[in-house]
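Model: You mentioned two targets. I'll fold them one after the other.
Researcher: Yes, keep them separate.
Model: Target one:
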Amino acid sequence: MKKHLLFISMVVIGMGTFAQGSSLINGKLHPMTPKKSLPVKSEITERTASCSNDTLHYAYAKELIQTTPAFYGFGLLTGSTSMASGYSQAFTNNTTATISGVEFWGFVQDDVNPSQSLNVNVSIYNVNATNQPTTSLGSTILTITGSVDNFYTATFGAPISVSSNYAVVLTNTSTTDTLGIVVNAAATTTYGEGLASLQYMGTWYASSALLAPDEYEGIFAPIITYSINTNYTYAPTSICEAQTVNFTNTTTPTALSNRMANWNVFADYFNYPSSTVIDSTYAWDMDDASPAIWSANASHAFATANTYNVGLYTMGGFWKSCNDSKSQAIVVTVCTDIDEASKDAISVYPNPSTGLFNVNVNTASKSTIEVYNVIGEVVFTSQVNGNTTIDLSSLNAGVYSLKVTTDNMNVVKPIVLTK
């Protein structure tokens, strides 16, 4: 069959010669038009308990968020002295997951026979410290047909288990027909991360070493499944009204912190879109009409005695939404037999306030005043003797906890700052 590939330049490697990797058609870069849109992630929804068959289109998403996305064709041909035969795209992994298949963007490059077919070997490999493939964990053969680029899905006979970093590897089994794969426009000077490798004459090389400064990443996406177990602890367990409760997130797996497996972490890492939300993987609902707390852990003071169904919501998944939740009943009591007298010894007014709060401390001893935000951070502190006025006008509007500590008492009161 007639192949129509031109190359930019030649790079000498060992005893062989390798053609620069961007495949060209008719002397021009072969641009590809995106075929998928970025995922629209849902907000808090029902419990799913598992992230099943999520397609990790990391390299694809990295390109789509660029101001001017660019995708190119890249030719693979086995046995060629001027072309690579295999392409590898590595993924970081910090949990136990199974891979049921791979979705990749490709085509058969044949100007003579547009309906030509060829077999693609799709594999999962362990990788070394430089993200190059080492040992195969499993593979399958997929036949693709035609010169029109499409997304293809290769399914493994049995799911492949991974617990550390791995790579998706595509190899052309044909010595006569060219496999076209689609790559992004990553470079060492932009958003390349040392994830891509090329196989030339049986040896793997980092793409950045062969194509510098380009570091094209293959549009290969493993289809993974892992379990989500949302849970949390809280302290103290005996809670009085207006007392600060600290909530500690114990959710697993650690994949939720991996930007290659969690869209929210990906979006935060690449600042897409530009947002003031620091952590959008977890959200807390305190069940008392207060705003949701978007953070891994949280602190909160319940103003009145009641039973609150405090919910922790986990937003996982990369190309699909994998949401999970955990709710526990938190009992808040008045505690009149313990600290009612101490509570009455402290008064705060006006409350709500636009910034100035009068704090009356009916004691002659030295007092420490601390103000906490809803995630438990100290945003104001002062030491006083007797009554005082504090100015919180520089803080954002919201619910805060004001804590007064003396030699013989420790009182927390909720305050509301308005604008």
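Model: Target two:
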Amino acid sequence: MPATASRPLRAHFRPPRPSPGLLPRVLSPLVADLGIDPGTANTVVYAQGRGIVVQEPSVVAIGADRRRVVAVGRAAQRMIGRTPRDITTIRPVRGGAVADFEVTHTMLRCFLRAAHSLRGWPRLVMAVPAGATSVERRAVRDAVLRAGARAAVLVDEPLAAAIGAGLPVEEPAGCMVVAIGGGTTEVAVTSMGGVVAHTSVRVAGDDMDEAIMDHVRWRHGLIIGQPTAEALKIELGAMRPCAGDRTSLHGRDMVTGLPREMEITAAEVREAISGPLEQILTAVEMTLSVTPPELAADVMDRGILLTGGLAQLPGLDVVISERTSVAAVLAEQPQLAVARGVGRLVEERALAGRLLHPRRAAWS
């Protein structure tokens, strides 16, 4: 992992490289193709023949003048809320879209360099939200091309998650996937290698963190940071009451400005995240309501597959099952389902050719 770097940030901002002609064709057998899941919270890179080689937070720490990179990934994440005035931590991917093009390009360039040791121009399969606009898709494709990719093919995130979870996506049968990440929730029903019905909402783990921060601020007069809110969500965010359902937290008092400690219960955390949770449940119901009847029957038989980091929230599968009357099942290593899906497309050329049609010309 490229932990730190002192090189100027502007050094990475070069105009798009002209077509390198014959050289990439000569190097292509030597350069592993890559699959990337550029999530709001984490970026995961799959290298052909090696599996997952990069799994880092999507965070960059840069100088306040934006001229130098201080840290990328896990090292930058540890700096959130702890930096001096001349350093800023940035999450350049927000809500599944590129929020800061230059910093996204720099972050991806670092991750691509860590993923393949040979110099060359790798080809990429990249997951994007199914609800991403054409402008957002073009922005993420341009970012990886400038970061050093020779070609980039985009695949819808729910389809990639279904492939990674081993669902029979090419069969004429419905498979429902709910991918809940840091910035977006993707709900989709797939059949015959494509997405039949989907709902994409920009509500996910980050919104729950903000809801917890707001709750603690206005209910208890205590200011806490995003890392503390995320820790509370993980520790006390279970959808059902459990033993030991309280913990202490530290923050800054809104009135005195001094550090203060207090206790918070799991019931309060559940109350705080109920708003974002309701929007996620509504998205699942909306997708089921527009699913063709035959595919809806398949979903009833097969159940709903939950993927993404937030899917690991204890009891979330039970809540979704009760709300929809359809069994919900947590995927194995749900946070890696999308990365395994794009990885399988990288490894299996024939599968990629069938599912990425008519974009397969870029992958031939």
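Researcher: Noted. Anything on target two?
Model: Residues 205-274 form a domain with the Actin; Chain A, domain 4 fold (CATH 3.90.640.10).
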